[in-house]
Design goal:
The chain has helices at residues 2-14, 32-47, 59-68, 79-84, 115-118, 130-133, 147-155, 166-175, 202-218, 220-233, and strands at 23-28, 51-56, 73-78, 88-98, 101-105, 123-126, 141-144, 161-164, 181-185, 191-198. By secondary structure, the protein is α/β, with parallel strands linked by helices.
Length: 235
């Protein structure tokens, strides 16, 4: 009986407080790394007795709407974004990591390209993808709305390169049926992606961070990510 009472107390502690909404509206821009992060967060939120409802929003608008409180949170962002906003809380457990690659059409691919060299070209950059936006000077940017649009524009010769995360770009090339392209590593360090919540959910952010830390330490997070990436590569 004492053991059952203890389990009941633990379950109650994991559930959302009575005044907390059971469903949170989270902004996201469709991408493959977002799908991987969503698989991890969905499991974590459910352990807290909460449901995550994803709303498709352009990257920059999702950041702004989370800051204003129109959205409960922003699915994934680099840590620097949270420092630019005044009314958000960063959940300090990385959900995904990537290095920037440059993409161009054709073969004869170099082993690496520097940002200094890329800055001399027209480079497609997805709006709101701060890792890419902050890595190049503005004069080199050719802004686009998403990864699939970027691949189409690159194929049409609208720019010399595209810059961004490998998972999303290579999936976009695959879905477009394009095989003749170069994926070139850049000289940037890896970027980590984090979940962001509006400041009114500061207490929830702490509880979510604890759940995610447990998933990270146990290896569960890595398994979820691997399974999600495998599904994405197979579609």
């Amino acid at each position: 009986m004492r053991r059952m009472a203890g389990c009941a107390l633990l379950l109650a502690a994991a559930q959302a407080p009575a005044d907390e909404p059971r469903r949170l509206e989270i902004g996201t821009t469709p991408s493959d790394q977002a799908d991987v992060a969503a698989a991890v967060l969905d499991k974590a939120y459910r352990r807290l007795g909460l449901e995550m409802q994803l709303r498709s929003v352009p990257m920059r608008r999702s950041q702004q709407m989370t800051d204003s409180g129109a959205l409960d949170g922003d699915l994934i962002r680099i840590a620097a974004v949270s420092r630019e906003l005044s009314n958000v809380v960063l959940v300090k457990v990385p959900l995904y990591q990537f290095s920037l690659h440059a993409y161009r059409m054709g073969g004869d691919c170099p082993a690496q390209i520097s940002l200094a060299e890329l800055a001399q070209h027209d480079v497609l950059v997805v709006r709101g993808l701060r890792a890419a936006e902050t890595s190049l000077p503005g004069h080199a940017h050719v802004p686009v709305g998403g990864f699939e649009e970027s691949v189409r524009q690159l194929q049409r010769g609208k720019a010399d390169y595209a810059l961004g995360p490998p998972l999303s770009y290579e999936a976009s090339f695959r879905r477009a049926g394009i095989k003749d392209y170069c994926a070139i590593p850049t000289d940037t360090p890896p970027f980590e992606l984090f979940h962001v919540l509006n400041r009114r959910h500061a207490e929830l952010a702490g509880r979510l961070e604890q759940v995610l830390n447990d998933m990270l330490k146990s290896g569960e997070m890595a398994i979820i990510r691997q399974e999600a990436e495998k599904r994405l590569r197979g579609r």
